[in-house]
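Can't attach files on this board, so I'm pasting raw text. These are the components:
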Amino acid sequence: MSEKKLLLGNAAIARGLYEAGCRFVSSYPGTPSTEITQFASEYKEIYAEWAPNEKVGAEAALGASIGGARAFCGMKHVGLNVAADPVFSAGYVGVNGGFVIAVADDSGMHSSQDEQDSRHYAAAAKIPMLEPSDSSECLSFTKKAFELSERFDTPFLIRSSTRISHSLGAAELGEREETELKEYKKDAAKYVMMPANARERRAAVEKRLAEIAEWAESCEFNRVEYSESENKTEEKIGIISSGIAYQYAREAFGDNCSYLKLGLVYPLPTELILDFAKNVDRVIVIEELDDIIESWCKKIGVKTDGKNLLSNTGEYSQEILREKILGIKPENIELGEDIAIPGRPPVLCPGCSHRGMFHVLKKLKLFVSGDIGCYTLGAAAPLSAMDTTLCMGASISGMHGFNVVRGAESAKKSVAAIGDSTFMHSGITGLIDITYNKGVSKILILDNGTTGMTGHQHHPGTGYTLKGEAAPIVSIEGICRAAGIKEENIKVFDPCDLTQTEKILKEELAKDEACVMIARRPCVLLKTTKTDKKYKIKQEGCTGCRLCMSAGCPAIKFENKKASVEESLCTGCGLCGQLCRLNLIEEI
Amino acid sequence: MNTKVTNMMMVGVGGQGSLLASRILGGVALKLNYDVKASEVHGMSQRGGSVVTYLKYGEKVYSPVICRGEADFILAFEQLEALRWLPYLKKNGVIIMSTHKVNPAPVITGAMEYPKDISKTIENTGIRLIEADAFSLAVQAGTDKAANVVIIGILAKLMKDEIDKDIYIDVLREQINPRFFDANLAAFNSGYNFI
Ligand SMILES: Cc1ncc(C[n+]2csc(CCOP(=O)(O)OP(=O)(O)O)c2C)c(N)n1
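---
Top answer:
Structure tokens for the assembled complex are below.
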């Protein structure tokens, strides 16, 4: 029985995993890829887990594949940087059970620190890559990727993007094909990558790639749609595109152009493109981010337009394509230039545990080596208390380098601020770098008991697995102790208590040794966090000094020269009460 | 083939329920056997940022996003967001706006002012604006969480010649937790009877 359902791209990928008989999923969250693994975990037939980071997830999934199961790992584009090491070698080792890796790019950087085109990884690792363009293809491509992975003895990459992963579209549901656990046969020449074996496998990779390239010429993932429209443009335009860019192109140019839609974006076909180019007058390559298809066309001698008209930065849309290629500007309402519309950037939530912490960091005027998570919003006004943010984990290691060159005094005026999930992901090795090399940097772990930024996933410190089962708590304090931080240099406190927070920070900063301060207060959005208290500001006596607003709580508004609490937004953290010098803020 | 695609935008602030609104309207379009696409916002901007969700349906939908001058309807759950996204509306489009206001960071910090007379600014462009205190209507219906459903009720009335009211109610029944269904139905009806 087949059934059509509206599915998020990520849910469709998860459904593809289910239908393909995938048994093992190990991922680390990252927008826009997170929900693939969350949806996969809802199928009882699939073992699904959160790994502490993407490298571990990819290795675990390859292990499951070698163990004979169909296995999967999902991540965002920067996650693939972290997982790159095992992924490259996985290309050499190949698979036993099918192994599929999904990577979701974030063109436009809706939720990321950088923009990357993951297709480069496919080429660099010589691993084939499929790129679906809607939910229906998310499901069918994922499902087929397992079969192909086994047929060609290679991992398969699936590239998504924010608009694919987070768009709803109809998809046809099928049944799960249960797969047998394949026999594991010891085969060191295939599975042990030491130079002698790797040289053999290197050749095998090239041979495999040639086979896949030949298959690419006629595979079902690439299709030509010649224009059948009456009012064909006089010049016959042929568009080569893939993924979400294909959808924008289709919407902008309709049936007036012909299309070569590529679903397999590595390796790219040669004859198919040459043939398509022969049948049209002008070829335009439309691909988001880098000029990968276009460069390939150049290499095989096909003249195209592409990045001469379109940017290699940010997202495309039908509007951009119409404007840049057809010269058609949108017809829209213009609001006068005199209307100033305030932006609405994301902010720390009312009651967020990070707010008090960053208020104190600002007050103490510290250099803050920051990291990635909700707390990166501590870099924004009015808190403005972060100096650097690079990638997950870099706060601690970066702090170490900074302080080594700037000397011991620098370590008394600086801290590395890192979230609990980020600490588990890649902060631990930085901590070890400090203790092992006799560093004296101060580390602040912002432990809100969850992976907040990506929508509250469990991690090794929360005491629960992805499937919601109770699990041993990996203790942050315990890790710090084991890494060599002295017991007296580990402090735990509630960052919403400003007096205590400031006192502890001052004491620890004065020390000549490495210290770890753990600011522990649960994320206000967790279901288990109590938010039933409300505060109000006595209007009589309010001088409008705005001190209560200095930490940037969105629940405080300022009208008629007085501050007041928007009751519907207040979650009762009481931070504002500690900021008011006139003691006008009290619990309702 | 009928190439007409109906474009709707849900705009508001993270956490106001625009996702649910697009799922409900998507469910309605699917029941009518249309091809449906919707683009949602997850991640960073959900933390109190400006959030826009696109919903498109027709015989065949390609792009999941809506660009300037393309929306038939904008459902705005907050005033400033209505103003921000107005250029996305077709010149003959309709905007349904909740009178609710949420201060953005630049207003909270005192760097900027919340624009005054937003409804007048919108009406001055010649656009058809329907304003409703959806929050209060939802509270009267029994849940402060259903301002989005009130707005959907208003939309349903505007589209009554194309889509039967009962289809929305069927979808609400399918998608809303049974415990809150009655209040949501009341919210939907108060929107439907608002105009
Ligand atoms: C390599 C990599 N993987 C995943 C992400 C996505 N991501 C950004 S921050 C974050 C974790 C945030 O959790 P935590 O450190 O606990 O801070 P919180 O958001 O809870 O304050 C994740 C998973 C990323 N940016 N880079």
